[in-house]
Design a protein that fits this description.
Strand content: under 5%
Structural class: mainly alpha
Order of helices and strands: HHHEHE
Distance between the termini: 30 Å
Shape: flat
Strand order of the largest sheet: 1-2
């Protein structure tokens, strides 16, 4: 199986990474101002396959601890630490292709998460 990189997809990810790095750099330079949140990125390749897009999205949510309710933590110290952490806004940038984007939107609907789309046709 030969994989082919789409230059526009790579450019999109690099552009998003640059924007996030710029945001975080400006945040670090701010003094005596309420700190802005830092932004991170997890990029997964779905190869325009809806099942893979759903899998990548769920893997991301698991990696950031989205599915770990504090009542399921093993000890009280860990639960207290989790509760004292600053809240995190977690959002998903949907895949470019409409079929995968719609599949991800349907799979994540119960979570009530913000989902950003590349275009209205992939929303």
């Amino acid at each position: 199986m030969v994989l082919k990189w789409e230059p526009s997809s790579v450019q999109d990810v690099v552009a998003i990474q640059w924007a996030m790095a710029y945001w975080n750099e400006q945040t670090n330079k701010m003094r005596n101002v309420t700190k802005r949140p830092r932004i991170g990125l997890f990029a997964g390749d779905s190869c325009s396959r809806p099942k893979e897009a759903i899998s990548q999205s769920l893997r991301f949510l698991d990696a950031v601890g989205f599915h770990d309710p504090t009542e399921c933590l093993l000890n009280n110290k860990e639960a207290l630490r989790k509760r004292s952490e600053a809240p995190r806004l977690i959002a998903v940038l949907s895949p470019k292709d409409s079929e995968s984007a719609n599949s991800v939107a349907q799979a994540l609907k119960p979570y009530n998460l913000p989902i950003a789309a590349f275009s209205s046709s992939s929303a």
